[in-house]
Amino acid sequence: MNILETLQNLAAQTWFANLEWGNLLMIFVALFFLYLAIRHGFEPLLLVPIAFGMLLVNMYPPIMEEGGLLHYFFLLDEWSILPSLIFMGVGAMTDFGPLIANPKSFLLGAAAQLGIFAAYFFAILLGFNGAAAAAISIIGGADGPTSIFLASKLGQTSLMGPIAVAAYSYMSLVPIIQPPIMKLLTTEEERKIKMEQLRPVSKLEKILFPVIITVVVVALLPSTAPLIGMLMLGNLFKECGVVKQLAETASNAMMYIVVIILGVSVGATTSAEAFINWTTLKIVALGLIAFAIGTAGGVLFGKLMCKLTKGKVNPLIGSAGVSAVPMAARVSQKVGAEADPTNFLLMHAMGPNVAGVIGTAVAAGVFMAIFGV
Description:
mainly alpha
């Protein structure tokens, strides 16, 4: 009898005994994300840990409860530690030279933030309160760390999981979502436009840029200091030339450790119980709308700049104004090369791409100022 009871207890503890259809559905979604990351290379550094966290939490939900490993990982997201460290790593990895060489790129980065503010009003119409709508709308910038940061600061921790998953998912799916929008809004002649080579940027300019941006942005929007400050500090590590070890650590070892912890913990917020509901579906839909409008806003402003400069600006670089660095810039290059294999837009697109990172952080700062954070 003891043996039978032991076997029954063992069977009751297995995943099969507690299986629900929602968990099974989320597991299939996790496997699909793994397929996209491994087979097609869609932002695998993000999608692999996110998908595996999704798999884990739907196999063993207590892993995200207090006392579970991933619960403590996620606290680092809620405390805004991991998003800020991600920004430092991005700054240390990114060349701001194209933005410095062509300051007009700031306008393209700003235009691509249109999706954020459009999504804010759509979210209000769907019944979300102001703070929740603001947190959701940042998905339109395709910036996962900023989405997590703002949701935390606005007290929307209950929505942080769906917001973060939507933001990171759309970041990973940039190569699928953006090209149809870019091609729809541009002509083949516009996509073939070749831009003039950017001017060389001096070392002094590269050193002064992160310092000046920090002073100006934080003076106007002090609440952006954790994101803008860490982004610019990482870039200063890279450009100043006297802290090579710090630059290497921020852009490699630290960056990848943080991506693992953040990705797995974000994926682990997608338990079936927390994720399969109308609120989550609305957030995912709003995020997609915001991202599409942001992409369209950047491309349309690029078309305007093309007209004003008499064909010197390729509108495709406007799509890189969303914050998915450097994936969005690579997509601009890819679509341009499809029209003309000799066209090289990557460095031109990096200007709006970097501007988009700054612009999304500024948009988050505006919302924090509006809601008194």
